[in-house]
Write a structure and sequence with these properties.
Blueprint: H1 2-28, H2 33-37, H3 40-45, E1 46-51, E2 57-62, E3 68-73, H4 76-98, H5 102-218
Antiparallel strand pairs: 1-2, 2-3
Helix pairs in contact: 1-4
Length: 222
């Protein structure tokens, strides 16, 4: 606000000096009113209209408000002076609006201080709330970490038991394979013994037949 006020003070001063310059020039021989009408500061704020005829007339209106600054008049100097006066009045009004009185400034400072105090209290409450929320999240994270550690230990125990059972399964499978091999060997041995028993039975039968034949040949004396 102070910067804008300073800029407006400089602008008002420059406008006043310019106004004094063309008034002095008018008194000393007459200024270039058409050149003054085409000046950037006037063209920015006002629209000048020239109506030709038996007597050329000039008017001006404000660009933003579309309000009339001067009625039709054949005197261009009158239109330009009124436009200058309107521009100076509006600039002074803006300067007064942007430059508050000491009492108003103190009220604004007081209200600002009260607002800052209220905001500070709210910020402190918000900070405490966020700290409590952070502590809650931290405790939950620690709890989850402990549960994860316990689950990890349980998983390791399960994996250990599974590995032991897998090894036991491999051992039983090897034993089963050995038993099957032994069973096959016993079966083969049983076949061999069965064949041998059959051969012995056949020999026995042959010996019995031979004995009978000998008895028949030798008679009762044998």
């Amino acid at each position: 606000m102070n910067t804008v006020g300073k800029i407006l003070v400089v602008f008002v001063t420059a406008s006043s000096l310019g106004f004094l310059a063309f008034v002095a020039a008018m008194r000393n021989g007459g200024p270039d009113w058409k050149g003054e009408m085409r000046s950037p500061e006037l063209q920015k704020e006002f629209v000048f209209t020239t109506e030709p005829g038996e007597t050329i007339t000039y008017t001006a209106r404000h660009r933003r408000s579309e309000s009339s600054v001067s009625e039709k008049t054949p005197i261009l100097a009158e239109v330009v002076v009124k436009a200058r006066k309107r521009l100076e009045d509006e600039t002074n009004k803006k300067l007064q609006e942007l430059s508050p009185q000491p009492g108003q400034l103190q009220d604004q400072i007081k209200a600002t201080v009260e607002t800052i105090a209220a905001d500070k209290k709210g910020v402190e409450q918000r900070e405490q709330s966020l700290n409590d929320l952070f502590q809650e999240y931290w405790n939950e994270m620690n709890t989850v970490g402990d549960e994860f550690s316990a689950s990890t230990l349980q998983t390791q125990e399960v994996l250990k038991v599974s590995e032991e059972r897998r090894e036991e399964g491999y051992r039983l499978a090897n034993q089963l394979a050995m038993l099957r091999n032994d069973k096959f060997a016993v079966s083969e041995q049983q076949k061999v013994l069965q064949d041998e028993l059959t051969r012995l039975e056949e020999n026995k039968q042959r010996l019995l037949r031979r004995q009978i034949q000998l008895k028949q040949q030798l008679g009762d004396s044998y």
